[in-house]
Design a protein that fits this description.
- The protein has 201 residues and is an alpha/beta fold.
- The chain has one domain (4-188): Rossmann fold (3-Layer(aba) Sandwich), CATH 3.40.50.
- Helices cover 41% and strands 15% of the residues.
- It contains seven helices and six strands.
- The chain has helices at 15-27, 38-48, 56-66, 104-112, 118-128, 144-155, 174-188, and strands at 4-9, 31-36, 75-77, 96-102, 132-137, 159-160.
- The protein has a six-stranded parallel beta sheet, sandwiched between helices.
Length: 201
């Protein structure tokens, strides 16, 4: 059965991972509940030359224009303070949530259970309801504070998946490197894909 996935884009470098993941989830007929921070809008423009509008309805239109093969009914975009969104309540959690890319500020807030915006609240809901949460932290090097926050989250069942690509599949392009990470994320949330050949296959 198609899954419902909450995808959050935050202000770390690595927007190519997030947008490619969105494209692949929609292609897999998943229902995607998209959240994004103000900093993510800046990163999207800087790294992808893609304007991510502030209004959710305009952001949805821009993303559907970017991914014309997607079913519009499979994409819902919510604002940062949209507390009536399904992801804000444990009565209607997604099957899984991914924060990609995940800033260290967002990771720290989730680790402390702050829930000051919809991204943090959605992550808090997913943890407390026992659903899969995958964080893709794009930072290097990690400080002791970063590592301690990751350990706290890992002990709570959160998957910490830094975008550290392998090269045994002989990537020929940046897209191949991006797809390697997106494939690993999709494996974690149980969404089938054909992004790369599996080891030993």
């Amino acid at each position: 059965m198609p899954k419902t996935i909450c995808l959050a884009l935050t202000g770390a470098s690595g927007m190519p991972y997030g947008l490619r993941l969105l494209e692949c989830l929609l292609a897999a007929d998943c229902t995607v509940q998209l959240l994004y921070s103000q900093a993510a809008q800046v990163v999207s423009k800087q790294e992808m030359d893609f304007e991510l509008p502030s209004r959710p309805s305009e952001a949805k239109a821009a993303l559907l224009a970017r991914f014309p093969a997607a079913n519009p009914e499979n994409l819902a975009v919510y604002g940062r303070e949209e507390w009536f969104a399904p992801v804000a309540s444990g009565t209607n959690p997604p099957d899984a949530m991914v924060v990609c890319p995940c800033s260290m500020g967002t990771l720290a807030a989730i680790a402390q259970g702050l829930s000051d915006n919809l991204i943090e609240r959605a992550a808090d809901v997913v943890i407390k309801e026992g659903r899969k949460l995958v964080l893709v932290p794009r930072e290097t090097p990690f400080s002791t504070i970063h590592l301690e926050n990751m350990l706290r989250l890992s002990r709570a069942g959160v998957v910490i998946l830094p975008p550290s690509p392998g090269f045994y599949h002989h990537p020929q392009s940046v897209q191949d490197v991006v797809d390697f990470i997106v494939a690993r994320v999709m494996d974690q949330i149980g969404v089938p894909h054909t992004l790369m050949q599996r080891w030993g296959a």
